[in-house]
Amino acid sequence: MSTNRVMIAGSGGQGIILMGKLxxxxxxxxxxxxxxxxxxxxxxxxxxxxxSVIISDRPISCPVVHKADIVVVMNQPSFEKFESAxxxxxxxxxxxxxxxxxxxxxDIEIYKVxxxxxxxxxxxxxxxxxxxxxxxxxxxxxxxxxxVTKALKKEFSGKKVVYLDANLLAFxxxxxx
Amino acid sequence: xxxxxxxxxxxxxxxxxxRGGCRxxxxxxxxxxxxxxxxxxxxLPKRGGTFIQAESELGTINMSYGIGCAGGNVFISSAxxxxxxxxxxxxxxxxxxxxxxxxxxxxxxAGIGGIxxxxxxxxxxxxxxxxxxxxxxxxxxxxxxxAVDIIYESFEIADRYRNPVMILADGMMGQMMExxxxxxxxxxxxxxxxxxxxxxxxxxxxxxxxxxxRIKSYHAHPAELEQYIDYLYEKYMRxxxxxxxxxxxxxxxAEIVFVAYGSMARIVREVLEVLRKDGIKAGMIRPxxxxxxxxAPFEALNPEVTKVVISAEMSKGQMIxxxxxxxxxxxxVKLFSRTGGIIPSTEEIVAFVKTLRKELK
Lengths: 177, 361
What we know:
The structure holds 2 protein chains of 2 kinds.
Chain A: E1 3-11, H1 16-29, E2 33-38, E3 48-56, E4 68-73, H2 76-82, E5 86-95, E6 109-113, H3 115-121, H4 128-140, H5 145-155, H6 164-171
Parallel strand pairs in A: 1-4, 4-5, 5-6
Antiparallel strand pairs in A: 1-3, 2-3
Chain B: E1 4-8, H1 9-20, E2 24-27, H2 35-43, E3 50-53, H3 57-69, E4 74-78, H4 80-85, H5 87-95, E5 100-106, H6 122-127, E6 138-139, H7 144-161, E7 164-170, H8 171-175, E8 177-181, H9 192-198, H10 222-242, E9 246-249, E10 256-259, H11 262-277, E11 282-287, E12 289-291, H12 296-299, E13 308-313, H13 320-327, E14 333-337, H14 346-360
Parallel strand pairs in B: 2-3, 2-4, 4-5, 5-7, 6-7, 10-11, 10-13, 13-14
Antiparallel strand pairs in B: 1-8, 6-12, 9-11
């Protein structure tokens, strides 16, 4: 019996919602119970965006996440807002390309992912979110790597198929913290 | 088991409506339900239906009145202030016995309020803001699957009673994603020609017949109007008896019984687990129909066992009068409430219960 609470935050346009949806979708395909809840309101490109995903072996009562065991922050403002949302003993994944401030918490695991840089190296600068997704999945095992690969092939199909190879590279770009 | 699909609430609501027999959708965008008209605009025409973007909520309800008179199965959706604008129309549809399925994906606060989830439209949907003696059955799903199942069924309920049916959800349910199993599409009428068979009262064209169908809201003579109101009253009393729905969770031995619907009921379900682990016997009644308010589970509560009932709402005690009536005031009722778009955490409800128990001792 386990329940994972994940919070993903960044700026509008960074692919925050897609990361959350992919995680939720893959977990559902693995037979888990899942919920996905985006922030909503006067959202716009460049504004803030966040979403919460819960993955569990049991029915999920409430999709709202106040404290998460995995927190992902993709830019400086989300780091400031959500560093405190990590459960003690939980993991903080931060996009070190854009976040330069030191982490003050000492009771959590910290993974610095140079996401924008790694995405550019993979040939697709916009896919910092997919680099980060790779880091989370590889580090936490929250879902199976091969199932995310399958989901990426589904996501990047049809007209978007031209982006598939670069995204698969981006997904594998982060090796270790 | 049928295939589970991951869908956003608003899209699942729209898909369930199409599968349940919706052939017309009329709507006007408003957060947090705009994905419903968006989804309908590209899906409904592909499935043999008609999508209409109205110029306003007044347009929405009044075009739907017309479609309903002609026998079309129509679905509309909006959010709190949008539903407020439609109230005159609901009164007309009820008085003219025109079926329709409406959905309120509710927001928070009065007036323009806020766009985050709330439950403060309880009185609006259960009492209505239109004139006259009328009632609209209101169903309040708490999970995506509940919502899909009740929307799917609602077209038949609306047609059975020739009356609008309201589904009350909230912004959280509209925006979240959760796996659902979608029911098989059903056909209520095959084509326009078939509407006359399915709804013999509908205005499908007189075709030269002497006894033409008439649908009207106006009755000039008091005696005639009173007779008509009595006829509708008898129907509402039948609906009140036949449409009560609720679920009870661990109420038999519960010293504390929550009453919660919609998103709040999801949270309370977890609260019950936490309280029971701490040795506090807590249960919940989840009204599924808000009008008619389900009385049977309240009659079943024993005041020797249940010491307090808590109305857990994202509104300011709007449900309490219904609870007190159903309980016949045999057990005291307290309010747990968060408003303004704030969704309470399990921990704060647990803390509320622990404080309340100390006060009661």
